[in-house]
Amino acid sequence: MSETVDPITRSVVQHRLSSIVAEMGEAMLRTSYSQILNSSRDFSLAICDVTGRLIAQAEHIPVHVGALPWATRAVEERIRDVVPGDMILMNDPYHGGSHLPDLTVFVPVFDGERRLLWTIVRAHQSDIGGATHGAYNPDATEIWQEGLRIPPIRLAEAGRMRDDILDMLALNVRNPYDFRGDLAAMIGAAHLGERRVKKLLAELGTPVVEAAIEAVLDAAEAQARAVVSTWRDGTFHGEALLDDDGRGRTDIRIAAKVTKRGSDVEVDLSDSDPQASSFVNSSHANMQAAVAMAFAYLIDPDIPKNSGALRPLTVKAKQGTIVWADPGRPVTLCTSHPGNEIVEAIVKALAGSCPDRAMAGWGRRYRIAIQGENPRTGRGFIWHMFHARPGGGASSGGDGWSSIGEWHSAGGLKFGSIEVAEARFPLHFRKHEFRPNSGGDGQYRGGLGVALDLVLETTRPALGNTAGEGTRHGSAGMLGGEDSAPHRYRLLSEGRPPRELRTKEVGIEILPGDYLEVRSAGGGGWGPPAKRSQAARERDRLQGLVTDDAEAV
Amino acid sequence: MLTIGIDVGGTFTDLVAIDASGRTVFAKSLSTPEDQSLGVMTGLEELARRLDLSRADMLAQTQRLVHGTTVATNALLERRGAKVALITTEGHRDVLEMREGLKGNRYDLRSPPPEPLVPRELRFGVRERMRPDGEVLIPLDQDSLNEAIAAIRRSGATSVAVCFLHAYRNAAHEHAVAERLARELPDVGVSCSSDVLPQIKEYERVSTTVVNAYVSPIVRRYLERLERRLTEAGFAGSLFIILSHGGMAPVEEAARLAAATVLSGPAGGMAGARRSAAMLGVADLVAFDMGGTSTDISLIADGAMTLSADSGLAGQRIALRSLDIASIAAGGGSVASVDNGGIFHVGPQSAGAMPGPACYGQGGEAATVTDANVVLGYLDAAKFMGGKRPLDVSAAEAAIDRLATSLKITRIEAAAGIFRLVNLKMADGIRMMTLRRGVDPRRFALLSFGGAAGLHAVELARELDITRIIVPTTASVLSAWGMLTSDLRYEVSRTHFESGARSTAGEVREIFEGLEARATERLQGWFDGPIAIERAAEMRYGEQIFEIDVSLDGIDLSSPSLIAEIEKRFHRRHEELYTYASRDQEVVFVNARVAAVGRVATYEADAHAVTTTKAAIPRGTRRALFGERRDVPVFALDELRPGHMLQGPAIIEAETTTVVINAGDALTVNGFGWLDIRLCKAQGI
User: Is A15 within a domain?
Assistant: First the structure.
């Protein structure tokens, strides 16, 4: 490197870059249209360089972040001769994407003729076309049934929007209005980032900023290595199981062989089970992202999540397995599953290397969407359940968080107000409370899941779709801690026997007055139950979080 | 006739008196955290002395006393509030602890969850249920209520929060429970959600109601004690408390709605900023209050302060409307450090008041922002706090040297780095706030107040392309001074959760008229002057989750096209904030709100005529960093007169603040004796 940079400038650049991505996030939050973005915040912002290195990211959805370098490399491979004013769009899992709903916009940042960086916005779309609304299609046997595939393409050329392309895209989704609004928000946020990065280049000079970026990446690497070098050396194994593929194949295994030596960590997922015929496969980029997410959870939370911090990590996997499907396979569930199981397998393995850092398992995602007619308005409705969040895993830091979510969202996904849901939809929430006995026992107890009794106040039959995991396997206990109770969703109907819902079903008939008995999983326990203090056990009982009647939920 | 403003801060209690001629007198006393009213009484003694009056005479002449208090704030921060029990709808007793499924740091999976203000064993589900339209689905079950009351009696709880689902629509069950509690547990305070925050969204409502129950007893005790002491000392006027929304209310109301006093302190500062903006005739102002541990930022846009319902404190959600103030963990005491990757940071840790910056000589070894200012020559160690508390230069140098050595740079480079990074951090905070509000920071002037603000204001303004900075002479007591112009304010709201298409003009009119009657009636109990009404609606598009505030001031409620008018205002406001409107989309009303405002008479100082046209004479020079280390003129603020002009680089000193301006920047002293600084475009220090 020709330019050296003083430590103050290095800090200034690091600080600036992270405030730029934070501002991009604020702009997205305030301007996006659909609920999944402005409420659930299912989007991420990043700055990558032209070799695909992640320079800065805003803390939104952990599973997006490790995926963006792969998306950037796919853009670089495919799009040549980028000029100022170009803008790239992509989503395809077989061209560097994770799954089809995650649309990604790239805006290049130039210094004169030279292209240096990309400002990137990835956002989960509420619909992306395909056979079912919302992209989660348990029946899909190939990716074409999951939605519209977009390899890296130019959405703008030298400052001119390709309106023809935009029209074609909008025509292929179910809610073109939201789609256009959200895309406009993404483009606005990416351009805001571009402007701010250019100002930084102008102010400090491009060579100084480039040198500072190298120093920032090196610093994150040094911090990560300092942490890893305190862990025990060795080769460790961990595994986690998917319940099923929805077609009768059960207990699909994700196997992690993790070798830790000095300050390096190699994760080898090659022994994982063969790929599936349904959407529980992972794309390559998503697999890489899940491994990065596991690593990020185990190092210190305040180490910047950039490519420098991930340098100690090497990843091996085999194409054709559940973690890296062959081209054409469906993959929509992958950001949750097997994303979560990949994390769990790696954390389990590394529990032998860094027990104080390895947290017990967080919940698995189990979606349900209900479509029907609202008798109060006479209009159709679609309701997606974000309530009944599962519990978080316990750790050496203490008991797990209750009602907090899954590995891949980790408290980043807000569930809406019950009062608002009841006012807007024909739903009655009879109960929405912690589910006793759902957390895994241990020296530290897993967080609790939730017991939800939801009555449908329709006058005509409605239809339910599910997409998820975790009715066979609870969240993993760690280091002697016990697994949590798994999810259990049932449909109770007058005159019909109770019906256990499966995690991958389409078209479940829900009759007026039926109720859904939703019992979400807790988090895993950490450490041997025998070591749990008497005081903690007494408090659990006093609070009714643990009861004698294990069936009382 | 006098009016007195009193602001109790962490270290000092500030007092300001204004008489009918506009004469303004300041005093300060040490705060007394264990009983704030003691420091207040000492301060009043000092204030009277400066007015050449006895305290009893001064208080006898005082018509109005306005008070900003941190009693609720501290109770919440230090978790020293009441033992609270919660009565809520059966099947929903964990709303408070679920926190909508959110947690803070995304990558920190090992920190345990926070303890809720009411532990689960004190949260009681009672059998009852309302529907969203207010219809009773399950009547209030007396047996389950009896059980809850018996358990609360056994628990020794001293305050009870009552929050039922959909009580914003039908409060009958909450009121019935409150009556029973008043009869059977007469010594226990009761906060009902339908009184505290009658709005849809159960988490916000239950959390706010619980906070209210938690701080209410301690706030009530304090205010009653203060009132008693004042009466005994001869005060016969009205005592008002500043609330988080920037308006004021009598003691009884502040004690009832104690959760609305948690931002009482900073609200005074913002009132001062608004008053300054009005005096200057400036419409857009960033209020920048930099203290020892944190910096408070807020915006006055088009002459108005913004209220938001997004606030919270100490991890507790408080959805009452309050001034939109962003607090950034950066101040004079912010500590500089180097992480194990070799990256240099300033804050968020602070050396606080103890041990404080190294230069305080109280054993602090960490290099802080104040130490950097000493090393750079901006702060005069000998004259700190008017010479009452000289700083230890060698301790500051030693602290900065330790940092410089680990970074392999010089002492001056390290100190300049701290100065630069802390400015960057505060500039980011302001930029983020303007982004949220959809305004461009460049059109704003920066109002600098708080002890440390003057040292940094010019350079952080430059970072934001802001070109005008104002430093009022009242900077050090701005909160107490600003309070004196606060209005009496009573806010009421009602949820009307309905789409525009399904609402009728008559229905909406009725809601607003009902709210106005209630608000006016309440305010008339406190105040016999003219009452102004402010109306607003919280609205959003169908699928959105954030409502925006739409002002309905000046709208004709009797218009048959009322709904269309309101929708038009919503689209326009949405476009202002977020650059687009979706005029063909469903619009949803969520809450209607009305504020009754009583404007009190204030005594204003007039701007003085320009008394001089001469250049200001410096008191001396000091060696400080301005591009390079050089001797720059130092001026005494109290020697500057209206009309004085000077050019940077220069340092202007007063007892409690120091202002640094750079080469090319021009300073004028305005008619109030305030500093009005215009920046040149050149690169900063």
Answer: yes
**Residue A393 domain-assigned (yes or no):** yes
Pick the last residue of a domain from A203, A221, A239. A221
Suggest the residue from B200, B343, B418, B579 to mutate for an interface test with chain A (most A CBs closer than 10 A). Answer: B343
| Tokens found for residue A396 | 């050496």
Domain for residue A211, yes or no? yes
pLDDT value for A1: 43
Q: What are phi and psi of B466, to 5 degrees?
A: -85, 140
CA distance A303 to chain B (A): 9
CA distance B392 to chain A (A): 25
Q: Is B101 on the interface with A (CB under 8 A)?
A: yes
Alpha-carbon span B544 to B581, nearest angstrom: 13
Report d(CA A266, CA A273) in Å as an integer.
19
For residues A344 and A388, is the Cβ–Cβ distance under 8 A? no
The alpha carbon of residue A142 is apart from the nearest alpha carbon of chain B, in Å, by 31
Cβ-contact A273, A321 below 8 angstroms = yes
Counting beta carbons within 10 angstroms of the beta carbon of residue A494, is it exposed (0 to 12), middle (13 to 18) or buried (19 or more)? exposed
Domain housing A140: 7-221
Compute φ and ψ for A510, nearest 5 degrees: -115, 120
The rounded distance, in Å, linking the Cα atoms of A389 and A385 is 9
- The answer to whether B154 contacts chain A (CB < 8 Å) is no
B242-295 pLDDT, tens digit per residue, is: 999 988 999 999 999 999 999 888 888 888 898 889 888 999 999 999 887 788
- Give every strand in the sheet of B84-89, ordered side by side: B123-126, B84-89, B159-163, B189-192
Out of A175, A203, A221, a domain closes at A221
pTM given for the model: 0.92
Give contacts of B105 with chain A, Cβ < 8 Å: 59, 301
Show which of residues 541-580 on chain B sit within 8 Å of chain A, judged by CB atoms.
541, 543-546, 577-580
In a domain, A145, yes or no: yes
The whole-angstrom distance between residue A541's C-alpha and the CA centroid of its chain comes to 34
CB pairs under 8 A between A and B: 216
Q: In total, how many domains does chain A have? A: 2
Q: What would the pLDDT profile of A91-126 be if each residue is shown by its tens digit?
A: 999 999 999 999 999 999 999 999 999 999 999 998
How many Å apart are CA B668 and CA B469, to the nearest integer? 11
Query: Among partner residues A35, A178, A301, which is closest to B108 by beta-carbon distance?
Result: A301
Under 8 Å between Cβ of B245 and B320: yes
Q: Which domains does chain B possess?
A: 82-212 (3.40.50), 334-421 (no CATH), 488-598 (no CATH)
pLDDT at B578 > cutoff 70: no
Contacting residues of B for A479, CB less than 8 Å apart = none
Which DSSP string do the residues of B243-303 spell out, in sequence order?
Answer: -TTS-EEEHHHHHHTGGGGTTHHHHHHHHHHHHHHHHHT-S-EEEEEE-SS-EEEEEEETT
Q: Is the pLDDT of residue A460 over 70?
A: yes
Burial-class residue B306 by CB neighbours within 10 Å (0-12, 13-18, 19+): middle
Assign A551 a pLDDT band (cuts: 50, 70, 90). low
CB contact at 8 A, A381 and A485: no
Q: Do A389 and B98 touch (CB under 8 A)?
A: yes
